[in-house]
Amino acid sequence: MTAALPGPVALAPEPVLDDVVLLPELWVVEASQWLSSSAGRVALESYSWMQAVHWVAGSGLYQPRRHRSSGLRNFTATTVYIAQLLAELTPCFPGIEYLMRRTGLSERAVEYHLAALRETGLLAYISKGTRVRGERAQASEFARMIPPEFDAALGVRTVLRDETAPAYARAAAGIAEAGRNLMAELGQRAVRKVRRPRAKSASKVSAKASPTRTPESAAGVAETGVSEGSRCTPMGGSCSTSSSAAGTYPPPESKLASGQDKSSNRRKSKANAGGRKAGRRKLNVIGRRFQMGRELTQEVEWLRGCSVPRISWVCRNVADAGWTTAEVLAWLHLRGTAERVHRGSGLLAVLLAGAETVLDTPAKRADAIAQWRGAQEARRRHDIKRVRAERERYEGDWQNPESHAVRTEVDDAVAQLKNLSRPVAQDLPDASAPGAASYEVDETEFAGMRAAALAELKAGVTSMITDTIHGCGYDEALSVYGPELMNRARRIDQIRRSSLTTLTYGS
Predict the structure, then answer these.
(1) 130: DSSP letter
(2) In angstroms, rounded to a whole number, what is the distance separating the alpha carbons of residues 306 and 292?
(3) Which of 85-89, 203-207, 238-242 has the lowest average pLDDT?
(4) Would you state the pLDDT for residue 2?
(5) 323: Cβ contacts below 8 Å, ≥ 6 apart
(6) Residue 78 phi, psi (nearest 5)
(7) Lower CB density within 10 Å: C or N end of the chain?
């Protein structure tokens, strides 16, 4: 059994000022938590740094409640475990997500333990991490430090071998005789592996079950010695021949009436009695506010990107009055919004001012929801009509030119085509008259038009044929250009409308 760490060690004679004793303590202000302004020295290896960590854990000199009201109350076993994780990193560049995964703690708890290591002088910033919206957070880089209180308490002498080097580069040159035993004890602790602390409930049960408590268990540090002789597998398994099931016994026959344990049946019956509602938690006042704030940031366009806690605070009055998100959206529809919104939370606060006093009954709020739903349906129908009109206008085969002169030329060209394809009625002989000959169009009249249409089709343009179809009809265009050119123009239009093909034309 190892000897316990001694109590707090006086670093210097206790000064007396007006009969008030000023006890020494470990506390580093925020401005001195950087490497350039730190009063400690850089630990040359993780072994010496873990000695300082265990000395701080057992000294009791860290009392943060004298300086702040939040965070940790003292240097805990979890802090020692996180320090052991940091000692494995070279360089000391830990990420919050990495420590959360290794420790099972929340983000804020990890930040509290890192703050404790900085406030005791065990860590110092080399570069501080940044958090920019939309970008991945950058981790901070730390330097493992040994506080000056550790050197003073154990009588460690330090020297600065290079006069041009900074003060934190000094190294240990010796130790007082009185501190050798304590340094040896700290060395034994430094080589031990600190296990991940168990949950509070498990630690309380083990504390009550054990008749005696060692100084290590009293300090809350769970440690296990690293002995190479006790390992017999690559995973570090033990060679003990004792079975872990030696103390387990089957339940008595009186508790197995139907082949199952009564206690397990009782637990299952309680779980089934509640049904699905047993696993649900009823939201309190704060929970309803945050639920409404989160839903409003998702439903309202000009609230996208706003802070959910701020929006929750703005809508606190209507949330406490029992409003739903749909009722808030209906009220915003009745009030109306601005065209340009510079600050969404401020506009929401103005629009919700006095809302709970105006729509103070469920019937009024239901009427507001009905009006809001009706306006949404009318807007939906209007959007459908608008989209249909745009498709008919922009996605059709023919678009009227915007220029009046171009439209005039197109109309003249279509009129000429009609005159060519349809002769004047009085010039034609009466087909019903006996002996009258039928009128036939001469092929030489359309040779120039067919040659021009063929040249356009080779370039992938079908405007000449499509204009004739829209102006004179399909049958007249077929009689002018013939079935071959018409089919070719139709295939080109089909390929052009397809999203799977792209037409490219050479010079």
Answers:
(1) -
(2) 13
(3) 238-242
(4) 43
(5) 292, 355, 356, 365
(6) -65, -35
(7) C
Say how far apart CA 166 and CA 466 lie, in whole Å.
Answer: 85
Q: Tell me: the pLDDT tens digits for 346-377? A: 999 999 999 999 999 999 999 999 998 988 88
Distance of CA 87 to the CA centre of its chain: 29
Distances in whole angstroms, Cα of residue 186 to Cα of each of 6, 80, 83, 167, 180: 11, 13, 15, 25, 10
Report helix, strand or coil for 259: coil
User: What residue spans define the domains of the chain?
Assistant: 16-218, 285-390, 404-422+442-497
Amino acid letter at 422?
A: R
| 289-300 pLDDT, tens digit each | 999 999 999 989
- Tell me which DSSP letter residue 34 carries: B
* 123, 142 contact by CB (below 8 A): yes
What is the rounded distance in angstroms from the CA atom of residue 249 to the CA atom of residue 52?
A: 46
Q: Rounded distance, CA 263 to CA 498, Å?
A: 69
Write out 143-173 in H/E/C secondary structure: EEEECHHHHHHHCEEEECCCCCCCHHHCEEE
- 41-42 sheet: strands from edge to edge: 41-42, 141-146, 123-127
**Exposure string (b/e) for 377-402, b if CB count within 10 Å is 16 or more?**
eeeeeeeeeeeeeeeeeeeeeeeeee
Q: 3-class DSSP state for residue 258?
A: coil
Angle CA(487)–CA(490)–CA(494) in degrees, nearest 5?
140
The whole-angstrom separation of Cα 158 and Cα 41 is: 9
Give the list of residues 6+ apart from residue 399 with CB closer than 8 angstroms, or none. Answer: 393
Q: Are 368 and 331 in contact (CB under 8 A)?
A: yes
- The owner of tokens 């020494």 is 24
